[in-house]
Specification:
single chain; 331 residues; Thrombin, subunit H; six-stranded antiparallel beta barrel; six-stranded antiparallel barrel; 12 strands; 42% helix
């Protein structure tokens, strides 16, 4: 059945004709474009004209993709930021620990060097574990005691100078009275001119005082005071304090001299306990070393004798009494 349009409308070429025409036109354009690139200009012009439309058409897709990327990147950055902050805190903590260990190592080296330079029998390294419970005294507790060889009377130093003296010793702990304690008295010597004096603790502010010094004594500010060693307890030459104020008044016979301790009385953690009993041991050993005499049996033969028998046997016993007397005087 053939379809014919109504006669009221003007009709052009048929559909088959139009199809054939456009097919031939397309084939011809393809041939010309492939052979002579005749359509390159047209293609560029059409692309230029259609580019804004393509951009507008692709905006929703680009926006949606940008939103997804922003959300994912924001989540990633937040997690990375948290990780970096945590690592930074950990690094700071490790750095602080390393710095603390470095400072402690440096202090321990200085402390051991000070202990090696002093002429003492031995030195015992210890750590300050706590302060004394008495608020009216200046004492500390160290972590070494009688088991480790710490005894009462031993001086205690740090890498800067004299810290105090062991006043009570327990099996695994010891109490140290600081030089600023009111019961501490230390013989000192002015390093500049050799003037000897005695330093007393117990002043407010952690200071010590030189008492009974004449008003015209040659003591000046910044003079360094060291142990004189006259008491036999503290080795000579340990820094004790530095003069910070000298008050002279013509109405008084003595000057008021205030000094600041050099050692870290309230700062340091590790201390060195000095065993200064070597001289006493040597002194006690000398009589024993001088006791033997050329006549080994002289003490046993001469002690029970009396003067009459000695007179009867004078030729045999005359050389022995002088040897016995020397041994006794040595003892």
């Amino acid at each position: 059945m053939e379809y014919t349009p109504p006669p009221l409308f003007k009709q052009g070429p048929s559909a088959r004709v139009r199809l054939a025409f456009f097919v031939a036109l397309s084939v011809g354009l393809l041939f010309l474009d492939s052979r002579f690139a005749a359509m390159e200009v047209v293609r560029k012009a059409v692309g230029t004209v259609l580019y804004p439309l393509q951009k507008i058409a692709s905006l929703p897709i680009e926006w949606s993709q940008a939103g997804v990327d922003y959300a994912s990147s924001l989540d990633t950055l937040q997690s990375e930021n948290k990780t970096l902050i945590l690592e930074q805190l950990q690094d700071k903590q490790r750095l602080h620990e390393l710095e603390t260990l470095r400072q402690e190592n440096e202090k321990l080296r200085k402390l051991m060097n000070v202990g090696n330079t002093l002429k003492v029998k031995r030195s015992i390294l210890s750590e300050i574990v706590s302060d004394a419970r008495d608020p009216f005294s200046r004492k500390i507790i160290i972590g070494k005691g009688l088991i480790q060889g710490v005894k009462e009377g031993m001086p205690v130093i740090d890498e800067l100078g004299l810290l105090g003296q062991v006043t009570r010793a327990f099996p695994s702990r010891a109490e140290v009275s600081l030089i600023t304690d009111k019961e501490q008295i230390i013989p000192v010597e002015n390093l500049r001119n050799g003037i000897r004096s005695v330093a007393y603790g117990g002043l407010d502010g952690g200071l010590i005082e030189l008492r009974f010094m004449a008003a015209n004594a040659d003591i000046e500010n910044n003079d360094l005071l060291v142990t004189s060693g006259l008491d036999g307890v503290y080795p000579r030459g340990i820094p004790v304090a530095r003069v910070i104020r000298v008050e002279r008044n013509s109405r008084y016979a003595f000057a008021s001299i205030f000094c600041e301790p050099i050692a870290g009385v309230e700062r340091h953690r590790f201390v060195l306990v000095l065993d200064t009993f070597r001289e006493k041991i040597v002194t006690d050993a000398q009589p024993g070393a001088s006791a033997p005499t050329p006549s080994g049996t002289a003490p046993t033969t001469t002690i029970p004798t009396t003067s009459p028998p000695a007179a009867n046997v004078a030729p045999a016993t005359t050389p022995t009494p002088p040897n016995t007397t020397e041994a006794g005087s040595g003892n």
